[in-house]
Amino acid sequence: MAAATWGNFAAIVRLLLLVNAKASSVTPRGRVVIGKALSADHDVTVAETSRRGHATRLAQGAAASGVEVVAVLGGDGTLNEAANGLAGTSCALAPLPGGSTNVFARTIGLPNDPIEATGVLLDALARRSIRRVGLGSVNGRYYLFHTGVGFDAAVVEQVERRSGLKRYAGHPLFVYAALDTWTRHFDRSRPRFAVHHADGSVVDDGYLSIVLNTNPYTYLGNRPLDLAPEATLDRGLAAVTVRTMAFTRFVPVIASALGQGRLLRRSRWVDHRTDLASLTIEAYGPVPYQVDGDHLGDAELLEFRHDPEVLDLVVP
Length: 316
Fold this sequence. Notes:
Layout: E1 4-5, E2 14-19, H1 28-39, E3 43-48, H2 54-64, E4 69-74, H3 76-86, E5 92-97, H4 103-107, H5 114-127, E6 129-138, E7 141-143, E8 146-150, H6 151-160, H7 166-169, H8 171-185, E9 193-197, E10 202-206, E11 208-212, E12 218-220, E13 223-225, E14 237-242, H9 247-255, H10 262-266, E15 270-276, E16 278-291, E17 294-314
Parallel strand pairs: 2-3, 2-4, 4-5
Antiparallel strand pairs: 1-6, 6-7, 6-17, 8-11, 8-16, 9-10, 9-16, 11-14, 12-13, 14-15, 16-17
Helix pairs in contact: 1-5, 2-3, 6-8
């Protein structure tokens, strides 16, 4: 989708810099440098999040008061909250990577360093570069890049239980949590849910499902984990459902996503669909789920929808 122009915006933009000071890559020095850089050209107010859900309310308030851009210095969870506050408004979202992985910021082409990304953001604001993009939603909550159900969400839950280590351990913590979840924290003895598609077909033996609004699913260091290259901000959702947890089948399928992903998309143990407007997951008892990297608990019914052109996004 080509970038559009904010023809009605003044040269100086009213901007809220929303900061999660607890995010993995946010430092006091970096916050000051970024604030000064943005304030040199624009009318900037700074607000700090203090609890879960706070970023949504701050973003909603900014949009209602006429702020034109909300820049988020934090991780993917904070960015998700802000997106939920801005969806359906004319106030644009501008990511600044401040977390441990920064999936969405890197997906749209930003550097992983927050100060470098600020320079890119300033250039985008000077060009008034924006896209009206689509979002996925699950049970009414919007998400930017994916929702994970089953084993994936159980891994995220274990990571969050060790949240104090995220700033220091980073990706090794995710690898450890995946192994720990596999051995101790997820029932692999039976399928956990069924995926019901709009065409009437049912995948009734799911252990893990990722419903993507963008690709890649995540990054391991600098390596993208590609599950569905077809998932973009101007297309429908993609759903990847893994139908086995047998080690010799599961591991090669997931590992293939670090390359071209051919085994992932061809395996008889994986259901792979694209350009979806909706789907429903019905669990066989409570199953964990996560949204944009935040574990949201367990559910027995998850209803997914794609909403096109619902969020203004500042893009490089």
